[in-house]
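Input record (one chain):
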Amino acid sequence: MNLSLIDISIVLAYLVLTLFIGFWLSQRASKDLQAYFLGGNSIKWYYLGLSNASGMFDISGTMWTVTIVFVYGLKSAWIPWLWPVWNQIFVMVFLAIWMRRSNTMTGAQWITFRFGDGRGGRLSHIIVVLFAVVSVIGFIAYFVEGIGKFATTFFTWDLSTTLFGFHLTSEQVYALIIIAITTLYTMKGGMYSVVSTEVLQFLIMTVACISVGIIAYNKVTPEQLSAVIPNGWTDFWPEWKLNLDWSKTFPELNDKIGADGYEMFGMLLMMMILKGIFASLAGPVPSYDMQRVLSTRTPAEAAKMSGLTSLVLFIPRYLMVGGFALLGLVYLKPELMKMGANIDFEMVLPLAIRQFVPVGIKGLLLAGLLAAFMGTFAAFINAAPAYLVNDLYKKYINPDAHNKKLVRYSYLSSLLLVMVGLIFGLFAKSLNSLTLWITSSLYGGYAAANVLKWIWWRFNGMGYFFGMLGGLVASVIVPSAVRFFYPDAIDIYMYPIILLISMGASVVATLFSKPEDMETIKNFYKQTKPWGFWGPVKREVMKEDASFLPNKDFKRDVFNVLVGITWQMSMVVLPLFFLSGQYKSTWISLGIFVATSVLLKFFWYDHIKNIK
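The corresponding structure, as predicted from the sequence alone:
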């Protein structure tokens, strides 16, 4: 498809503007590592919140989300619990406050704050760096797969070529070009550049999302939708079996459901809840989300930033996601059938944009989605070099390195990580396979040790190291071993095995090694103030400081988490109900959103306003 001159001009103008912002901010960002990676802790919390929301609006994730709404209907609202999407609620309610109180630059540096600088602390520090690097490489591969598919739908020039003996398709070349531009402006501007461009991108995407919602509402009637969907597509509440039969209207979708492995929906939901509780309590993985928390000015602002992320993200995003899914269902079957036996349902999003979005809005939407990809990608490649430069090079190799050298090495480490991620991305099978591996296998190895670090005083650096190591090894070996016997098994069902291996390694290594120095543990407890199993430490702290007030907010935090998850889900389903003509459910969702917002105002926001 040939884009109009107006649309091409909008896209090019955005790309030029992002490069300009990156170079314009480079002087501020290159002052030192604190400025480069955290914006000098001077960026206002609402800008960071908009940036964080924008960073979760990536093309790959949006293509995947449109696909699952297209296939699974309103029950698809539960499927993002794979991540889990409600980990942001745990961060908002209490984890952001705990993390920000550390005054550290990275997740690896935080580990030293928790376990000290002894043998266990250093091993834990190194394993977090390793996890951060592996997870960033996995996400870069995930982004490559999505942006290539997306770009070739709109930019039709044949750019296929051979590079260093490898044949690259047009899809891969477009991905390389866009990634090169993103890497360049991120390297130059650091966190300042990432936040500035993502705030701009969020504003563009909000306008585009509302436009898509209006287009879908005007083009798709409830009667048209009912004619092309099977019974149960508009049912929201999960059942033990999925019970979606596409045989009469789109038989190929039954094959898609079988390949995804989601037929036993009740079992899937149970696994997602089990995983979600542990993964959410573990806190953000050492990537862009954690960097936003550590970049805020105060613990209270860290919590408010995380709350704003959820508030501004879901309704606009699902207006667009639901709109494109409905347009695809009603109008795109002939286009998809042209693909023959190899139908790629992840192409619903770009095909719908191509066919239904008018000139001008199309350019704005493409610029926004490109920006979404670039913003999320930029956030990852801003976060990961901090681990290589600050947590490896500066800590172990050259503690006296001057700031210019450290920033220069940050540039080089960004390039290295992007190149490795690109190699993995070029060999990825699909967005769904990458999504499931990242969310289920890799993160399964992260959860156990990172839950225990918050809530158990006796947990030490050796336990953390062996728990993380066991989890990382299991996340690679367990899927291969299980698929040797059950080739169609999906990653989420392997999560309990990986979790048990990691938890067992954590507990055994802790009990067979000495506790950390009591002064280190007391310092962490006094400064962070977590709830959990901290009795011996609490007694020691209160002996020394009778004025110390321990954290007694466990019950309130649990209540706020449950209310927050309901609040978040109401924002997901509200636009889906509205666009699909379920108006009674729309009003119910709106009522739940208002009620939960009021509860959070009194029981969460009023409580955290004055927290230090």
